[in-house]
Design brief:
Elements (H helix, E strand, L loop, with lengths): L8 H11 L7 E5 L6 H11 L3 E6 L4 H6 L9 E5 L5 H15 L4 E4 L14 H29 L2 E5 L12 H21 L5 E7 L5 H7 L4 H9 L8 H12 L10 E4 L12
Parallel strand pairs: 1-2, 1-4, 2-3, 4-5, 5-6, 6-7
Helix pairs in contact: 2-9, 4-5, 5-6
Length: 275
């Protein structure tokens, strides 16, 4: 048997570069991308791996855009203003995003809002807004983006929630919208698989973002300890979710579609919430 030849330093560098550039030449559209949340972390991860990204949100993530402006003003990060609660703005916004770089390979439906509290106190307008943004908005964005994704044989990753897979007191309506996203993911995946478009979801438990921090500050010590106990790997960071999204969106996951991947928790652990 011939002895194997050790890889040269140059070969090792090329291999590392290849592994770190899974999205070279690819274009991604990310909804709800803020500078401190999950969407921003996903954008950072995909940019680091070579993608061009369009960030679609109500507010401009100025810091993120400035960071990736580039010396030649040919930025790989563009922002498209869109409020997913306004259905008639979604189609034109997605069209502008596709035109920004001429194609679309990855869609990340990340936009989401929540309201916590007793179900009896839920206001109809609160439910309607969550439904419009969390579920209907994602469906409308995906429908508008699908022609471009079919052309590129692209990938969709939906950001759902652990609450879609396990009951959480105080988040009944929010959980319903995220459970709807899981069902949407599974059914659409089956529909478009013959045309080589993949659709998956991630279901993060508690991630340290501005949205969750405001709730954590209201919890008593006992409830906070219960929350930590049902996260055996600790409270997550936006980068943890971004890593999972990047994997599912990449060619490394070419044989994976229709899954809802739990992040940071186990189904055998209950999920307590605020009083």
């Amino acid at each position: 048997m011939a002895a194997s030849t050790p890889a040269s330093p140059t070969t090792k560098k090329r291999s590392a570069a290849k592994l770190g550039a899974r999205f070279e030449g690819k274009v991604a559209l990310i909804t709800g991308a803020s500078e401190q949340g999950i969407g921003g972390a996903v954008a950072e991860r995909l940019l680091e791996e070579g993608a061009s990204v369009c960030l679609m949100s109500r507010s401009e993530p100025a810091g993120l855009l400035e960071k990736h402006a580039g010396d030649d003003k040919e930025s790989r990060a563009q922002w498209i203003k869109c409020d997913l609660a306004q259905a008639d703005t979604i189609g034109p916004a997605v069209e502008a995003a596709v035109q920004a770089f001429g194609s679309l390979d990855v869609l990340v439906n990340n936009s989401g809002i929540d309201t916590s509290g007793a179900f009896a106190d839920l206001k109809d307008e609160e439910w309607q807004q969550m439904l419009d943004v969390n579920l209907s908005g994602a469906i409308r964005v995906t429908q508008a983006a699908m022609p471009a994704l079919l052309k590129s044989k692209g990938s969709v990753v939906n950001v759902a929630s652990a609450t879609a897979m396990g009951g959480t007191p105080g988040l009944a309506a929010y959980s319903a919208t995220k459970a709807g996203m899981v069902g949407f993911t599974q059914s659409l995946a089956a529909e478009v698989a013959p045309r080589r478009v993949r659709v998956n979801a991630v279901c993060p438990a508690i991630v340290k973002t501005p949205m969750t921090t405001q709730y954590a500050q209201q919890l008593n010590a006992e409830t906070w300890q219960q929350l930590q106990a049902c996260h055996p790997m600790g409270i997550g960071k936006p980068a943890d979710v971004a890593a999972a999204v990047a994997f599912l969106a990449s060619s490394d996951a070419r044989w994976i579609t229709g899954i809802a991947l739990p992040l940071g928790w186990m189904s055998s652990f209950s999920m307590p919430m605020a009083e």
